[in-house]
Amino acid sequence: MDTMTQPKLLGYRQLTEEQGKLINEGKALADECGKYIAKLRAHPGTRPDGTAPMLPGQLHPLDQRWVSIGATDIQRGFMAVIRGIAQPTTF
Question: Which three-class secondary structure state does DSSP give residue 3?
Fold first, then answer.
C-alpha cells in the first residue's frame, strides 16, 4: 500500500494513493456542483435578493434563499465525505 508524501498535519494520518485519488475525485465533483450553484445564482430575472417582478415574457426568478441553503448542504455533504475518507484523529 503506497502512501502519499505530505507534511505532518496535526490530527491527520498519511493517506494511501487510492485515498488521495478518492479525495481528488470528490473535490472535482464538488467543483462541478459549485459551478452549477453559480449558474443558478446568475439566473436571468433573479435579483440578488431573490426577487423579481413577473412581466410577460420574462423568466421566473429563482428563490435564492433555497439556492443558498442547497449550496450550504452540498458543501457540508462533500466535507463529510472527504472527512470519511481522510479519517482525521482529532475533533
Answer: strand
Question: What pTM does this model have?
Answer: 0.75
Three state DSSP letters for 6-74:
CCCCCCCCCCEHHHHHHHHHHHHHHHHHHHHHHHHHCCCCCCCCCCCCCCCCCCCCCCHHHHHHHHHHH
45 pLDDT exceeds 80?
no
Reference 82, options 34, 22, 32, 42; nearest CA is 22
Look up residue 69 and give its amino acid.
I
- Give residue for cell 472535482: 28
